[in-house]
Design brief:
With 436 residues, this protein is of the alpha+beta class. The protein has 10 helices and 12 strands. The strands form 3 sheets. A 5-stranded antiparallel beta sheet has the order 2-1-5-4-3. Strands 7-9-10-12-11 form a 5-stranded mixed beta sheet, with helices on one face. It starts with a helix and ends with a strand. It binds adenosine-5'-diphosphate. Adenosine-5'-diphosphate (ADP) binds next to α7 and α10.
Length: 436
């Protein structure tokens, strides 16, 4: 970036110098030409007032050629050549103008383009024409003669520009470089206000990365901890059987313990795999028209036995509702919510699943008369491994990942979820799907 700024500044300086030189030459030349004609006009004025006429022998003005012509353009006198050898001048532009309008002027370029000859012609009262001419350098030759000096100035200026550009580029970049080091310092605004949106984005991404890393670290620690418990108990039971200290009755009990722990491990691993699948954004979700009511029917039927085991009644109400979504994910969502509603219910409690369409939107409600969730926990229950009552969750086969999966599925379906819960009264989840 520094190099680029440097190069750009030098190029700008170079172009500015070149352009200025060009402009100055043009302006200077214009003024110079004006001055030459003004001089010639003055000289002819003076000669006229002195009364120049045919027969005047010697009129010499330094560097100025004086010519006197008659009304037909024939040369009567010339200060530099023999008038007899000079042809008729009536077609010369300055003479044509002078004969027509009283005065005329013209510039004649030399073949080499190095010099110009300026002519000014004035008609006298007797009809004769008095002409004064002067040779002067052309704009090109002025430019060429000024070129060595110009190049020297250009070189000096370019070196100066390079030095200034170098330091300016460093000065310009310094706040940006400093910013990279101070990115973590909050509340510090950048030196350039134009950079604020970029800095905000970078800071936000930076914080997200840190947050994600922290979450991943926590998740790994939690997973390790969760896996350790059933594995320790499996190992303990196995050891007791191995040493032969357990009676036949104990062996059956220990085997049951091993199976329960192994099942727990399996559910845990399944949920972890499911979460990591939902986490990966690469996998595109297959979407179809799903009848939410039918899906809820299947889920309720599947969980009826389980509900009976917990002495809870589960029922479905409402009517057809269609959702554009992934059938398997929607099944998981329903299952997790209904399963929780049964597991965190009271004996004799109820679970009501309600499906309907309101204002073109599919609506799903899962309402239970269970233990409820205290206000302070309601925000956090969607976090991975967050449980309100750890022992109840574990004893009923919970992994602490069910609602994290639910939250993922809801966001993948662009749906909205509202939670109403009152300890001792029950819990209600209301989900609204945007796309039908
Ligand atoms: P778990 O496998 O422990 O049930 P979830 O992620 O499904 O994990 O739920 C997180 C926590 O939220 C549960 O441990 C429980 O404390 C609370 N919870 C979830 N659903 C309900 C409910 N319907 N009634 C009461 N508490 C609930």
């Amino acid at each position: 970036m520094k190099k680029k700024i440097n190069r750009m500044l030098v190029v700008i300086a170079f172009l500015a110098i070149l352009f200025t030189t060009f402009l100055i030459t043009i302006v200077y030349h214009g003024l110079y030409e004006k001055q030459v004609f003004e001089d010639l006009r003055n000289i002819t004025g003076i000669l006229k007032s002195k009364g120049i006429s045919e027969g005047t022998d010697c009129v010499t003005v330094d560097g100025v050629r004086v010519t006197l012509l008659d009304e037909q353009g024939a040369v009567l006198y010339d200060s530099e050549a023999d008038s007899n050898t000079m042809g008729n001048h009536s077609q010369r532009p300055e003479i044509v103008q002078a004969l027509r309008k009283g005065e005329g002027q013209t510039v004649r370029r030399s073949e080499t383009l190095a010099t110009n000859t300026y002519y000014y012609a004035l008609m006298l009262e007797n009809g004769q024409v008095l002409r004064a001419g002067r040779e002067a350098s052309s704009v090109l030759s002025i430019f060429v003669s000024a070129l060595p000096g110009l190049l020297l100035v250009l070189a000096v200026l370019i070196v100066m520009c390079m030095v200034i550009a170098h330091f300016q580029a460093i000065k310009l970049i310094a706040p940006i470089e400093q910013l990279a080091e101070e990115l973590d310092e909050t509340g510090k605004s950048p030196a350039y206000t134009e950079m604020e949106p970029y800095i905000d984005t970078i800071k936000r991404q930076h914080e997200e990365i840190i947050q994600n890393a922290r979450m991943r670290q926590e998740f790994t620690a939690n997973v390790t901890h969760e896996l350790k418990t059933p594995l320790t108990s499996i190992s303990g039971y196995a050891e007791l059987i191995e040493t032969g200290m357990a009676s036949e009755e104990d062996v059956t009990r220990f085997a049951h313990g091993i199976r329960t722990s192994a099942n727990r491990l399996l559910t845990l691993i399944n949920d972890i795999i499911r979460l990591s699948e939902l986490d990966s954004t690469e996998e595109k979700m297959e979407v179809e028209s799903v009848n939410l009511y039918n899906l809820a029917r299947t889920c309720v039927d599947m969980l009826t036995m389980n509900a009976e085991k917990h002495q809870v009644t589960i029922s479905l109400e409402g009517s057809e509702a269609w959702v554009q979504g992934n059938k398997q994910m929607l099944e998981e969502l329903l299952f997790n919510l209904c399963d929780n509603a049964i597991r965190y219910n009271n004996i004799g409690g109820t679970v009501l699943v309600y499906v309907n369409t309101t204002q073109e939107r599919a609506l799903l409600k899962v309402k239970d008369t269970g233990i409820g969730i205290p206000k302070e926990h309601q925000e956090r229950i969607f976090e991975r491994f967050y449980r309100v009552d750890k022992s109840r969750s574990k004893s009923t086969g919970g992994t602490g990942l069910g609602l994290a999966i639910v939250k993922h599925i809801i966001s993948k379906h662009d749906a909205e979820m509202v939670l109403h819960s009152e300890p001792g009264q029950g819990t209600e989840y209301i989900i609204t799907f945007k796309n039908r």
